[in-house]
User: Which sequence fits this backbone?
């Protein structure tokens, strides 16, 4: 997974106040960044760092473009890795329980999502750098596909919204690993009908940064608004038509994990108004051939 850059010499996370920056460094660990872990700060860097891959296995042709890494260490040359980003901010409204915002109505299954909102908490410098990086990725894909991006995908003065589907449609003729559906307040009859055509998505990874600097699994019920979190994000690109019937590109964020770095009750006692330091980034990786298969970078949970 990749951390975002503010400019040639500064990472976006280094613009957070010192107490928060310290927590992000604890999350990162002591290892040096390798090139693919450093998101570029300009279009030239993007051309050397990422590629737009057409996933022929994706039946929906409007959603089969993926931003992938051009080079990763020790990877199988026949494997592609979709770009995965790490975004920091203050947790806003969220629904990350297993069924997300599902109403319990069978007709609403396809629209059910888990979602989170994250904000700057008033810290403009790291937030602006984050938003600029996300828009840079959208601009790069837009240029590679020769499609206009619809509006400004992400705005500096707005919170970021990330979501993921709570259910996925079963593919006919294919055996899929079944995830047991928790009943909660849903009737057995409703569940039995749903299970014929839908599978519940695996639980969202939720973790806590321990005092020892380990990432340990955490129950999502412990999350609270105003927690300072690290969020895993993937960019989803959708080709559609606008109201003028022009073909345009839309960009969305899918959430892959949440790590709580600072609980909300501790944020109240932190001095968060200092100046920011800078550090140098590593160089972007060289060009490489586009591979074929897909694999995903994921959060590593420390075992107790």
Assistant:
């Amino acid at each position: 997974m990749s951390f975002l850059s503010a400019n040639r010499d500064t990472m976006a996370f280094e613009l957070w106040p010192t107490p928060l920056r310290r927590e992000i460094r604890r999350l990162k660990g002591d290892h040096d960044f390798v090139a693919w872990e450093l998101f570029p700060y300009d279009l030239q860097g993007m051309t050397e760092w990422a590629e737009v891959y057409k996933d022929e296995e994706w039946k929906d042709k409007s959603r089969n473009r993926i931003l992938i890494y051009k080079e990763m260490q020790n990877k199988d040359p026949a494997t592609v890795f979709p770009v995965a980003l790490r975004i920091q901010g203050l947790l806003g409204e969220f629904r990350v329980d297993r069924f997300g915002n599902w109403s319990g109505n069978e007709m609403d299954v396809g629209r059910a999502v888990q979602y989170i909102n994250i904000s700057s908490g008033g810290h403009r410098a790291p937030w602006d750098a984050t938003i600029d990086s996300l828009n840079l990725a959208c601009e790069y894909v837009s240029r590679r596909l020769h499609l206009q991006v619809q509006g400004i995908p992400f705005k500096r003065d707005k919170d970021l919204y990330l979501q993921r589907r709570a259910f996925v449609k079963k593919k006919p003729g294919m055996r899929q690993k079944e995830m047991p559906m928790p009943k909660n307040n849903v009737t057995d009859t409703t569940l039995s009908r749903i299970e014929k055509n839908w599978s519940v998505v695996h639980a969202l990874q939720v973790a806590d940064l321990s005092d020892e600097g380990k990432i340990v699994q955490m129950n999502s019920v412990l999350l609270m608004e105003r927690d300072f979190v690290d969020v895993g994000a993937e960019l989803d690109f959708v080709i559609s038509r606008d109201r003028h019937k022009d073909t345009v590109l839309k960009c969305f964020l899918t959430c892959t994990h949440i790590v709580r770095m600072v609980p909300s009750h501790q944020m109240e006692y932190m001095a968060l108004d200092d100046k920011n330091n800078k550090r140098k980034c590593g160089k972007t990786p060289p060009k490489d051939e586009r591979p074929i298969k897909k694999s995903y970078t994921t959060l590593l949970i420390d075992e107790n």
User: Anything to note?
Assistant: Residues 275-293 have pLDDT under 50 and may be disordered. Residues 50 and 69 are 5 Å apart (CA to CA).
